[in-house]
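Following up on my earlier message about nicotinamide-adenine-dinucleotide. Here are the inputs again, as you asked, copied directly from the submission form:
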Amino acid sequence: MISNKKSSKISGFYKMSVSERIEFVKDFSDLTEEDVSIFSSSLDIETADRMVENVLGNFELPLGIAVNFIINNKNYIIPMATEESSVIAAASNAAKIARIKGGFTAECSDPLMIGQLQLLHIDDVAGAAQKIMNHKNEILKIANDQDKILVDLGGGAKDLEVRILDSPIGKMIITHLIVDVRDAMGANAVNTMCEALAPMLEELTDGKIRLKILSNLADKRIVKAKAVFDKEKMGGESVVDDFLESYTLAAIDPYRAATHNKGIMNGIDSLIIATGNDFRAIEAGAHAYASRNGQYTSLSSYYKDKDGNLVGELELPMAVGIVGGAGNIHPKARLCKKILGIKTAKELGEIVASLGLAQNFAAVFALSTVGIQKGHMSLHAKNIAVMAGATKDEIDKVSDQMIKEGKIKLDRAKEIIEEIR
Ligand code: NAD
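Thanks, got it. Here's what our run produced:
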């Protein structure tokens, strides 16, 4: 049973004007006029100046919306900030195919992040490691004293793990502080706790603390997404087989896996940026996780169900927040979270993974059938026309002509402009 009445399914969305699209989003997500005004406004310079150093202005990216999504039986429209053409259309198309079989299902684990404390210059590392574990409750208490808000929300430091690593500079003890960060991304929260623990761990072990910082390999905070893609809509079972052949290369070869996973991140980063989250953290976590078995491989996997439909699954770490960080400050990030209607970081993570799977399906589907360039070319041709100096009225004529001729090149665009002027 679908839990919300308003459908995210809409045909010909791309043909609408910008104001018609905004009207659809306003209605879908119950936006106010004030919310709508944010679409065309820029981050004010004082806010930007408080966010980073040496500010000169703002750097804008296009913000679009992917439609047609059903995730965990709920309709979603998904804001995406990206400079790359075709990405938003591809996600919307994949979501349209996925919804035939009920859309995406996704599940995020508890929001457990890992903080690392590196201890050096210890003679008896095994004894020191044991000492740390013997003082676990005391250590967790000091960590939790740093963030009463988190603890009151049911989160906070929950556990300790101790690893002994050999290195060219000698043995070191790496203490992992496991923190439930609730609806935050958690980097600041975890780093504050790690720094507060440093003196106590040094005293306890007679060692020297060097690093005390979050790990971006958030492998205790995992999201999984799954969808079934209808074989008939894909063009028949032979197309599913072609798809699986293409996917297999990503499973066995890092050269292909890197591009395959980049396709996943096309979707994921766009939403991570739109919600003001830390896209470097998500990227680092994803690629480290893709190498967890010793060889870099695909983050997604595909197989056929008993009826010959394609089943896709995606699994990756998901350090996203809906409180804290830039997402709280940036008006467009706040608006994007309102468009999604999310109440928890877990829900955001489930949307992020579903979008990543949609994006990945769309790319491999295109690659194993018509090729990726067909979808890319129309917007690419428009960009080339603009680069060649086409005016607003000339852009479509120039790009249509180049596509017709199969020659999407700057010099040809310039010639066409001369011909039509
Ligand atoms: P934050 O410190 O701004 O917000 C988190 C705090 O908000 C919590 O500690 C808690 O006290 C409070 N809070 C209120 N309501 C909460 C709720 N419902 N759930 C959880 N906490 C709640 O941000 P953060 O999430 O700790 O850190 C994120 C920021 O840290 C990002 O901007 C990121 O770019 C940056 N950062 C990242 C790294 C990295 O390695 N990836 C390193 C340093 C900083």
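One observation from looking it over: The radius of gyration is 24 Å. Hope that helps, and feel free to reply on this thread.
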